Amino acid sequence: MAEGRNWFIGGMLLSCSYSLLQADVIKTVLLAVIGTLTSYLFGRLLAVAAKWLRKKKD
């Protein structure tokens, strides 16, 4: 029984590693990271600009 489970887990790991190494998956993850960083930096830039405008207004 343990040998069959080991074969199953080994096959599952090979299948997952193959699908993770495909170019589409890597490209999707990379674009998601770039999009997240861009969104975060733009939000921080807007917060600094708003703070600067409020300070300038007073």
UniProtKB/TrEMBL annotation:
Record keywords, A-Z: Membrane, Transmembrane, Transmembrane helix
Transmembrane portions of the chain: 7-23, 29-53
PROSITE patterns listed in its UniProt record: PROKAR_LIPOPROTEIN
Name of the protein in question: Uncharacterized protein
Species for this entry: Paenimyroides ummariense
